Amino acid sequence: MELLLLRFFLLKRSLSVCENDYAKALSNEQRFERLIGNLLKYGILIAYSTVLIGGILYLVCYGTEPANYQFFQGQPSVLDAPSLVIRGILSGSHNSIIIFGLLQLIAIPVIRVAVSVFTFVRHRDLTYTVMTLLALSGLIYSFVAAY
User: Fold this and answer.
1) Which candidate, 90, 60, 66, 61, places its Cα nearest to that of 78?
2) How far apart are CA 147 and CA 142, in angstroms?
3) DSSP H or E run through 107
4) What is the pTM for the complete model shown?
5) pLDDT digit string (tens) for 69-119?
């Protein structure tokens, strides 16, 4: 009888330990999903606001001018040097502010993948770490290979 009670106690204790591990893993996954969700939500909101501010500044400066589509006048690409974008923002250039907002929109998914790598490393999940590192290296290569 005592042996049966001891087995029941050990089984009950091992089940509660498994339940605690499951609850802890679930809370880690929920925190990760909340982190990624907030990153995407607030990142998009900030980028949208940046583009909106640049667009409003553009319309304030050039909104009343008629459009002339007869001749195309190219403008220097500020994407060739990030320092030009920063310098343009500091000088109040509406084009640079719009481009900065678009660069933020491009950077948000890359940051999401980078945060995922660190989270999977912290959880010691080798399979997802390797897969996410491959995705991140593909993203970085696509940016570097463009130049």
Assistant:
1) 90
2) 9
3) helix 94-122
4) 0.71
5) 787 777 667 666 777 888 888 888 888 899 899 989 989 999 999 999 988
The pair of three-digit structure tokens given for residue 143, joined into one six-digit string: 């940016």
The answer to whether 104 touches 43, Cβ cutoff 8 Å, is yes
Instruction: Give how far Cα 92 sits from Cα of 68, 105, 142, Å.
Output: 24, 20, 30
Contact (Cβ atoms closer than 8 angstroms) between residue 115 and residue 129:
no
Measured distance CA(21)–CA(37) in Å, rounded: 24
Nearest by Cα to 46 from 97, 117, 94, 81? 97
* Residue 31 in tokens: 């925190």
Asked if residues 100 and 89 have their Cβ atoms less than 8 Å apart, the reply is yes
Total length of the chain: 147
SS3 per-residue string spanning 91-106: HCCHHHHHHHHHHHHH
